[in-house]
Amino acid sequence: MIDFSQMITAKARAADALQARRAAMTVSRLQGRLVLGPDACARLDAIAADPNENWGLRETIANATEWRRSSETMAALGWVMGFSDDEMDALFEKAMLVAT
Question: So what's the pLDDT on residue 64?
C-alpha cells in the first residue's frame, strides 16, 4: 500500500532543501557573465539599453555587483532571458565555481 503522507513529507523536504540551496547561491556579476557567455550577455546588455524595458530590470543588469538566485529580480531576469528554474540553478552552480 502507498503511504501518501510519506510521499508528501518527502516532497516538502525536497522543496525546503531546494529553497535553502537557492538562498545560498550568490555570485558576482562577473562570475555570472563569464558563465553566460558573449551571446547571452549581448542580450542582457540590449535589455539594459532599451528604454522601453522595465527600469528596475535595466538597473539590475547594469549595476548589480552581486547576483542572488533567491532574488525576485533574478527570477524576472531569468524569465526574460527564457531560462527555466533548472537552467537558472545550473547557471548559478556553475558560476559559483568560477574563480575571479
Answer: 93
Question: CB count, 10 Å around CB of 19?
Answer: 10
Q: Give the integer Cα–Cα distance in Å for 11 and 13.
A: 5
CA distance 31 to 52: 27
- What is the distance between the alpha carbons of residues 74 and 67, in angstroms, rounded to a whole number? 7
b/e sequence 26-65, b meaning 16+ C-beta within 10 Å: ebbbebbbebbeeebeeebeebeeeeeeeeebbebbeebe
Asked if residues 29 and 92 have their Cβ atoms less than 8 Å apart, the reply is no
Distance CA 5, CA 9 (A): 6
Q: What is the mean pLDDT of the chain?
A: 91
